[in-house]
Amino acid sequence: MSEGSGRYVPLNLSSTSGSGYVYNIPVTSDKYVDANTYLCTGNTTGPFVLESAIHTRSEYTDLHSAEEFVRVFNTVETSKERISMRNHFYRHILPSLTDEKFEKDDETLQQLNLLLTCSDEHISRNAIQEMQNLIFKLDFEKLKVKSVMSALKSVASQLNSLKHDSRDEGVRLLSDLVIVLLIKEKLNPAESKQIKRRLNDLQHSVTSKASKKDKGLDMKSVADFLHYCMKYTMSKEGVKLMESRAENSLSEKYVQELISNVHKISTIEIYLHLLGFLFKVNSSPMPMSIAKSYAKVAHAKLTNLSPSKDKRGEASLTLLADFILRGAIVLFDRKLLSSHTEFAKECLTVAAQIVCSPNSSFATLPCEMVNICSKIDQSNASSIWSNLGLSDVRYQDLVVKLVKRQIPGMIIRDSFNQNIDLIARRSDHSSWITMLGTIMNSSEVAIKLMIPGQHPTKLHIQPREETEFWNIESEFEILKYIQRCQQHTNVAQMVAFYDTNPRSVAMFAVEIYEITLLKYLYDVRSRNDELTLDWKIQRCLEMLNAVDFIHHHDIVHRDIMAASFSIRCQGQDHEIAVLTSFKRAIHNDEEGGTSTIGHVRDLNATQIPTRWTAPESFLQDKFDRKSDIWMFGHVIREVFTYGCQPYTEIYSEDTENIMVKVLCCGLKPYKWRCIPMGIHSLTLKCFENDPGNRPSNQKIYSSLQEFHKKERKDIQNKDANRSMYSYVPHDKSRELCWLKRT
Q1: Bond preceding residue 47 cis, omega within 30 of 0
Q2: Tens of pLDDT, residues 27-81
Q3: Which helix (H) or strand (E) holds 498?
Q4: Which of 16, 175, 703, 717 stands 20 to 30 A from 35 (CA)?
């Protein structure tokens, strides 16, 4: 018996099925690794992904540089090869460029620039995002003008071919690169003519593309921004700022002068100053002082906009506001702005309103806004979202983009709106949504995403909605607990997860399968087909192994029924049963292994399934391993009766009356002829009223194996044309077998 603490020892699965395969030991040591570095780290919140999901083909392991990778990627033809190469990109190429030890900014920029030429939307998007991150870490002394201009040209040429999400990122990156180039021009007079010529060529190129109908608004905004930049002349203060980067910090006097004259200074000039502040944060031993200067200047500019100056550069104002948001994200992540609530509430609101305005070139806010608002106090966060007036759909879209950025390689199938299902809400506007997609090498997964509530109001919701919310929360915690070190073949894998503070985003992705066990049994029945005894016994053994695995980890399932299992196909004539539902499972660490958490709340099975429930769960609200054994006895009968509910034979009475007889009279299920006597006797032991008399998982397993060995010989001697399906209940009782449970 594997119950209790210590290392899990699987039940013996050495029996051979009728199809000839030997079922192997089901426990694997598949580990979770950091989704960004693909290493096992001390990080406890994620994002994490299973190591098996990022496996790459051996022939691609020799591709180390971006140049080699792009050359090979653009020659592959099959989708399977592209997926494998994409995984190699996520696991090897991207981490090598984003490693903290990799300090060659210029070389990194060149490598990312090469990746932009890759004929894959996902890789191009990640290259753009990493370029954006690099902007805030650049060292001008090591950066070459040629590299910046090359990157600028690549980004501009890609804008029209990018989808709207990636196009927003491209517009943001282009504006940052232009500002960097302007700074290089002022600090390197010898290259001024070359830089201006390149910017002029870029402006003409973008303007010509803006005349096209597709995505014209975005290109027009970029063209306006470039035109505005070409006329810009850096002030003496701007030159002084960049030349003083070697100093420990900017003087308070200088910052105050800048703030007092902020209404006279152009948007481009402020953009340059703020970028300079962020550059100094990286090198200054007093980063908090620089962060305060950034906050003060940004706040002063956005609250003292000049109608005449800023109207002429409307595109640049939008880009500046967006830059302020992204700069704040960097400073909040480094915990340099956490105490500046005035900046958070007023400055972020104004900047976000500009980015969200009808004239904005952006479809959405930077998705990291969700993270910012989770790090400031809730009243200020609620105020920001209320002032923005974002719809629930737009807010959900931001959260989805944030998680996609946190977990490279996550693809949501088809469009977002077609695959989203709002399944659970709480009164504080928090909700769990479910989407379909894939993560790297994984099969199709259900991506369950918790959208944090940010509104100050309270929702009036139905109790069932809130119960579903907590059911999914519980499922997430259970999966994290049981799969932290081991994976089990008969338990659905959690491929990836992401969990931060309670007010922020949480996500987990679980494998899904085409058909549940219950639906599988119904389908066999509808075809007047039948399943072999080998198939039935093997599925029961697999399900028992899953139950034994969670019991070893002190998990009480409370929902063991055929509908909680699915069938996974692993090739022709190779199917296995997998436990997929954990919504009502609980972690029980009480002495004696008994829990009184949870109730059988109704007789319609909307919570804990009534007809499957053990007497002590009804009478005393007790749920433990033995109550799960009672339920498993009914699952065995479901398999042999092709999906019949418990007590189907009593078709003239409702569930309430049936359960009264079970509790008061010791009613036991009827022995249908389709259930062999050995199986019926085994299930009756599971239905003992005294939990102590019910068999253990190991005893049930041994009994199933012994019965299997004995019956295989008997079945071979029977008439091959005799149909065991004829033993399935008929007439009204048979019709009741077809009723689907709520």
Answers
A1: yes
A2: 777 788 887 777 776 666 678 888 877 766 656 667 778 888 888 888 887 877 7
A3: strand 494-499
A4: 175
Which positions ≥6 away from 332 have C-beta within 8 Å?
A: 338, 371, 372, 375, 376
Contact 506, 495 (CB under 8 A): no
- Rounded to an integer, what distance in angstroms lies between the CA atom of residue 210 and that of residue 142? 34
Cross-strand pairs, 447 = 435, 509
Q: Could you identify the residue written with the tokens 């409370």?
A: 558
Burial call 272-309: b when 16+ CB within 10 Å, e when fewer: bbbbbbbbbbeebeebbbbbbbbbbbbbbbbeeeeeee
CA distance between the termini of the chain = 35
Helix axes 164-187, 192-210, angle to 10 degrees: 160
Please name which of 584, 597, 593 lies closest in space to residue 471, comparing C-alpha atoms.
Answer: 584
How far apart (Å, rounded) are the C-alpha atoms in residues 553 and 156? Answer: 54
One-letter amino acid at 554 equals D
Please count the residues of the chain.
742
Q: DSSP H helical segments within 502-624, as ranges?
A: 517-526, 533-552, 615-620
Report the C-alpha gap between 58 and 134 in whole angstroms. Answer: 30
Name the class of domain 406-511: alpha beta
Q: Structure pTM?
A: 0.78
- Identify the CA nearest to 196 among candidates 237, 149, 164, 240: 149
Give the list of residues 6+ apart from residue 442 with CB closer than 8 angstroms, or none.
50, 53, 495, 509, 511
Q: Which two tokens stand for residue 216?
A: 């014209």
Give residues with Cβ within 8 angstroms of 437, minimum separation 6.
410, 411, 412, 413, 419, 444, 445, 447, 509
Contacts of 49 (CB under 8 A, 6+ apart): 32, 33, 35, 38, 407, 409, 439, 440, 495, 496
Instruction: Tell me how many degrees the CA angle 228-231-236 measures, rounded to the nearest 5.
Output: 115
What sign for the dihedral angle of Cα 561, 563, 568, 572?
A: positive
Tally of CB atoms within 10 A around 98: 16
The answer to whether 248 and 278 are in contact (CB under 8 A) is: no
313 burial class (0-12, 13-18, 19+ CB within 10 angstroms)?
buried
**Beta-carbon contacts of residue 89 (< 8 Å; ≥ 6 apart):** 69, 73, 115, 123, 126
Give per-residue pLDDT as tens, 144-176.
888 888 888 888 777 777 776 677 778 888 888
- Nearest partner of 182 among 349, 64, 319, 348, judged by Cα: 319
Is 555:588 a contact under the CB 8 Å cutoff? yes
Q: Kindly compute the dihedral angle of the four CA atoms of residues 230, 231, 233, 238, in this order, to the nearest 10 degrees.
A: -60
Per-residue pLDDT at 592: 42
In terms of Cα–Cα distance, which of 152, 154, 166 is closest to 123? 166
**Candidate CATH numbers 2.40.50.140, 1.10.510.10, 3.30.565.10, 3.40.50.720; the one for domain 515-737:** 1.10.510.10
The CA dihedral of 676, 680, 681, 686, to the nearest 10 degrees, is 150
